[in-house]
């Protein structure tokens, strides 16, 4: 009996992640961005501990890996996409996209919000790529789905009034949406907070980023600070790539040198 419980602890945590994503999606549909983000954060917590528990208990399994991707697709793909969908429903549209009041049907406001679910599709694609990409054991290639979800959730929680009362918000949201979709499946290497040991040497960037994250969240709030953290995470990863300090870049350089 104890062995059965032990084997299923990681899967139970993964299912808790999935349930959190479903609840977040429900809150997103009714426009409660704060509660949606809280449940996305809950899902991210379960997502962190399911992998850790599987490694600690030595009960990793193929079904656990597939279940994890399914849960992540809901929590970090569908839920944030629904948050963006709601914002695209309620924001002010530019005058040239506004239908006169005499018409009962507004095609732009009816169909444009559904573009938000492109992010869910690209999140699923990013997760599928991750499952078969052997290069992502110590770092990521493309923006991780939890980071993307936290960015959007925090951004919407932080500035709903600006988004909903700014005629230019539609353009900004759609541009950011397309950029997110690209970054999710891009070949841009991004560092991961995966520690083989906790020494400063070899982990300076990870330790520094954790300290930076703590400072930002204390300063701006646990819900409102994440978009700043994720934006800086991307910029740091891009800086490592451009300076040749990215782990993936070094691996490719070593392979070319051997050839």
Using the CA coordinates, give the radius of gyration.
20 Å
* First and last CA, distance: 53 Å
Q: How much is the average pLDDT?
A: 86
β-sheet strand percentage: under 5%
Low-confidence stretches: 251-259
Total of helices:
11
Order of helices and strands: HHHHHEHHHEHHH
What is the number of strand segments?
A: 2
Indicate the percent of residues in helices. over 70%
Major beta sheet summary: 2 strands, antiparallel
Q: How is the largest sheet built, in terms of strand order?
A: 1-2
The shape, in one word, is: globular
Oligomer: single chain
Q: What structural class should be given to the helix and strand makeup?
A: mainly alpha
What does this structure look like?
With 259 residues, the protein is mostly helical. The chain is 71% helix and 2% strand. The chain is built from 11 helices and 2 strands; from the N terminus they run αααααβαααβααα. Strands 1-2 form a two-stranded antiparallel ribbon. The protein is globular. It starts with a helix and ends with a helix. The model is unreliable at 251-259 (pLDDT under 50).
Write the layout of secondary structure elements.
Layout lengths: L1 H28 L3 H25 L4 H29 L16 H5 L6 H15 L6 E3 L3 H14 L1 H5 L4 H17 L3 E3 L12 H17 L5 H17 L4 H12 L1
Antiparallel strand pairs: 1-2
